[in-house]
Amino acid sequence: MSKSRAHVFVEGRVQGVFFRAETQEAARQYNLTGWVRNLYDGRVEVVFEGQVENIEKMIAWCHEGPPYAVVTNVEVTRGEFKGEFDTFYITY
C-alpha cells in the first residue's frame, strides 16, 4: 500500500465546534499521523500522513467536519510521505 501526505486548510465555522478533537479522533481511527491546529484567521490547518486511501477518507471527512461545523471550503495540497510523526496530535 502506498503512503502519502496531505496539507489541508478548512474554512467556515470550524473553530469552537470541536473540529480539532474530532479530527484527532477520526485520524487515529484511520491510523494516520500528523497534527491539527486553529489558525488566527479562523481556519483549521491539518497535516495527515499515512495510507493514501485513509488520507482520502479524512479529506472527505474534512468537507463535513463534526456536527456543529459549517465547512465552506477545503484546500488540499498533496505531497510525499515523510514519516516524521509518531501519532496524530493537536498543536497550538
Salient structural properties:
Alpha-Beta Plaits, 5-stranded mixed beta sheet, 41% strand, 2 helices, 5 strands, single chain, alpha+beta, 92 residues, globular
The percentage of residues in β strands lies in: 35-45%
Alpha plus pi helix count: 2
Structural class: alpha+beta
- Distance N to C terminus: 32 Å
Q: Care to count the β-strands?
A: 5
| Largest sheet: spatial strand order | 4-1-3-2-5
Tell me the Rg in angstroms: 12 Å
Average pLDDT for all residues: 97
CATH class value: Alpha Beta
The number of domains is 1
Task: Summarize the structure in short.
The protein has helices at 19-29, 52-62, and strands spanning 3-13, 33-38, 44-51, 70-79, 88-90. The chain is of the alpha+beta class and 92 residues long.
Layout of secondary structure:
Elements lengths: L2 E11 L5 H11 L3 E6 L5 E8 H11 L7 E10 L8 E3 L2
What does this structure look like?
With 92 residues, this protein is of the alpha+beta class. It has a single domain, classed as Alpha-Beta Plaits (2-Layer Sandwich). Helix content is 24%, strand content 41%. The protein contains two helices and five strands, in the order βαββαββ.
